[in-house]
Amino acid sequence: DFLFFWGAVFLITTTLVALLKKENEELTPTKEETKGITDTYRLLFSIVKMPAVLTFCLLILTAKVGFSAADAVTGLKLVEEGVPKEHLALLAVPMVPLQIILPLIISKYTAGPQPLNTFYKAMPFRLLLGLEFAFLVWWTPTVKHEEGFPVYYYAVVLLSYALHQITLYSMYVAIMAFNAKVSDPLIGGTYMTLLNTVSNLGGNWPSTVALWLVDPLTVKECAGAQEQTCGTTVAAEV
User: Fold this and answer.
1) How far apart are CA 201 and CA 211, in angstroms?
2) What does the pLDDT look like over 58-76, one tens digit per residue?
3) pTM
4) What biological-process terms (Gene Ontology) are attached (predicted)?
């Protein structure tokens, strides 16, 4: 029902924009960005070759390695330890107002001449929250009882998620502000798309690697079979 409702809203609003919104014919662009797909990739390649852009791309491709495991695995580990998935999903609801308000607050600090300062300041706190998430996963089995988990446990999880959202959005808004600031207005769309794509890749590949490494790095013990190892999936099944 949720997806159906917002899907209908999306279709109606975009249709109204298509039908009712008219282009301003008087304003013509001074220069076309590109003439075709070949020109677009040639332009992207020339942008990437610039030393400053290359350095920045390397920065944002590797900046999120430190907290990739905490971001990608914490929720899965909490479910593995017995926290109901529906309870974790409900905790996302109070995050929505926070996610709306945070960019409005953070944008005041990223509007200046050095938007990346916010990114740098938020990074140590996000790394520390990774340790806090690890402690949360370790602590979870000790507070579980027959009826489930106490209210104070969910309060701690909610507070942890809220603090994580603050650091996440501080870094996200700062990167977006920097990309908008440095992009050449004549090729703004191409420039922004390139930098945003690299930024998204910088968040996705470490999470993929972290998820892939979970099983090999997890220490397992076999209950009732001392001689048997459970290091691999096949051994665990045996």
Assistant:
1) 15
2) 999 999 999 999 999 999 9
3) 0.76
4) acetyl-CoA transmembrane transport
